[in-house]
Design brief:
Layout lengths: L1 E4 L3 E4 L4 E6 L4 H8 L3 E13 L2 H6 L7 E11 L2 E10 L1 H4 L12 H9 L3 E12 L2 H7 L6 E11 L4 E10 L3 E5 L13
Parallel strand pairs: 3-10
Antiparallel strand pairs: 1-2, 4-5, 5-6, 6-9, 7-8, 8-9
């Protein structure tokens, strides 16, 4: 209901936007379906970026290997909701056009450039203190808890083709997981 910010005092928090996590929908499509205007700022783009160890492992690359990286700041109604670093193999990054991000989702472009559809993904989420870097871009105090989401998308042959590492502001976003059909596991008698 309220938030405290150093130098600003205590203020009434604006309503949170809802990020539907399950069923899986790309961020852009999720907000489009809700009728919410998502603004995207491209912070940087590198065809050959140094990789954090986690990303290198998720893309199954050797130590010292590079990959393409695009940094994105996402806003709704002029409020920052998340910071994303998206990674892709260099062969795809060489042909990737960051100017298209405003017209087509990153993952959609990556699939087209790969020439194959994404058929599966893995997703990890954890609550972590915001790093100095992430906090500065999110407009929060370093160390404030944020949701860090890391997803890896795979082609039909099992090759990883995209990693999205995102930091969400918890005071601006609420996360929803909904399933149409729920099956309770069958209980075995002992």
């Amino acid at each position: 209901m309220v938030s405290r910010a150093r130098g600003r005092g205590t203020i009434v928090s604006p309503p949170k936007v809802i990020r539907n996590m399950v069923p899986f929908t790309m961020l852009e499509e999720d907000f489009r379906q809700q009728g919410v205007v998502l603004e995207t700022e491209v912070l940087d783009f590198q065809v050959k970026a140094e990789l954090p160890e986690l990303v290198r492992e998720l893309l199954r690359l050797k130590v010292g290997a590079t990959a393409g990286r695009i940094g994105l700041l996402r806003r709704i109604a002029d409020r920052v909701i998340c910071l994303e670093h998206r990674y892709m193999p260099t062969r795809i990054a060489r042909r990737f056009d960051p100017a298209q991000v405003h017209l087509r989702p990153v993952l959609e472009q990556v699939q087209q450039l790969a020439g194959k559809p994404v058929t599966s993904f893995s997703w990890d989420m954890e609550f972590l203190p915001a790093t100095d870097f992430a906090a500065a871009l999110l407009g929060i105090t370093p160390g404030v808890t944020s949701l860090v989401s890391t997803s890896t998308e795979y082609l039909g042959d099992g090759a990883p083709v995209h990693v999205n590492h995102a930091w969400y502001r918890l005071d601006h976003v609420r996360f929803r997981f909904s399933v149409d059909q729920w099956r309770m596991p069958k209980r075995t008698e002992r």
